[in-house]
Amino acid sequence: MAKSDVKVLGAWPSPFVMRARIALKIKSVEYEYLEENLGSKSELLLKSNPVHKKIPVLIHNDKPVCESLIIVEYVDEAWSSSGPSIIPSDPYDRAVARFWAAYVDEKLFPALKSIGSGDGAEAKKAAIEQLIEGLVLLEDAFVKCSKGKPFFGGSQIGFLDIAFGCYLGWVRVTEKMNEVKLLDEVKTPGLFKWAERFCADAAVKDVMPETDKLAEFAKVLAKLRASGKWN
């Protein structure tokens, strides 16, 4: 399939955009990547996602698909005969993966954001404790889902790996900027080793942002939020 048939509207710091790009890489789908200006949304983005007006957007044969996890499922189904399956084939395993993916987005990501935007030491400490508690729960989920294999999805990266793994760049930045260890060899040994494997995978390493570059972006973002120019 020609690149022109598949496009991704995104921005390099976005963990959600990374989900779409990893899924496409796993499926060996060539695509045209269109970097959005974070300060000014393109006409194509507004036309393609008029409801939320957010990235990522996958455009396949001129038809837009929005929301990162929906895009991952779409890619897995649209190119079912290409590359390994991303979504678990077993109904129960699929339900469990979707449950934890929702948990990551609804609980862990807000806690991660709160560490960087917390007002005062106590607020940051509370957010860190909340995140670590969530990671311990996810450690248990990893043990059960992986069944002794390298990834949540088993022998290869699957749906839950993508859902959680896309945040690892921001986890590293948060650790660096706040001098805290979130993925710990003692408390979360499975996740600690999993994170190394995930970031080194061929489908991930080219789209995972460098920690220092992401940290610089985070500083700029913090200044914009403080000035009221970014919500």
From TrEMBL:
This is Glutathione S-transferase U17. It comes from Citrus sinensis.
